[in-house]
């Protein structure tokens, strides 16, 4: 899996870096070991900006919508690179188990907490609760990440990595309301990184 990731990275990076180079800000905020990487989402290319900003040394697993994974050839390639599908709008037990397994195994997980793209650059104030749940159940820190909506050709697009935080809840698993509160905090932290991207 990691070999496939490296192969795809080396094949795609030269072309992507030529047209849409990225600039990492706050890369030191990514902790060693497991972490949940949570960027805002404006374009389909956002995963590439995050992955290439981090460099080949960090090889995260990623959650992608099931529709993308069902595309012939593309879906097969993504799966080989460690991407796994999630059915949006429903309780996807299989995806939840895979995400938790990934984090407990010490890997990093890339997911977009908004669950969909906001092309105008607005950031959903509440987001989805998946990242919060994964963090609580695996005691894994969350890293907020900001990517500008405007990505100019042949100009470096800043990718801002914020300070990781480890949410706390009353019980062992947390409640739905606590997950929502954590999600709101995450989205607020992502929005707060915008200034560093200017």
How far apart are the termini?
Answer: 36 Å
Identify low-pLDDT runs.
Answer: none
Structural domains: how many? 1
How are strands sequenced across the largest beta sheet? 1-7-6-2-5-3-4
Number of strands: 7
Question: What this model shows, in words?
Answer:
Helices cover 38% and strands 16% of the residues. It is of the alpha/beta class and 198 residues long. A seven-stranded mixed β-sheet has the order 1-7-6-2-5-3-4, with helices on both faces. Helix 5 crosses helix 6 and helix 6 crosses helix 7. The longest helix is centred in the first third of the chain and has 18 residues.
Q: Which terms summarize this structure?
A:
198 residues, 16% strand, single chain, seven-stranded mixed sheet
Topology:
Elements: H1 2-19, E1 22-25, E2 35-39, H2 46-54, E3 61-65, H3 66-69, H4 74-80, E4 83-86, H5 93-104, E5 108-110, H6 130-138, E6 142-146, E7 157-161, H7 176-191
Parallel strand pairs: 1-7, 2-5, 2-6, 3-4, 3-5
Antiparallel strand pairs: 6-7
Helix pairs in contact: 5-6, 6-7
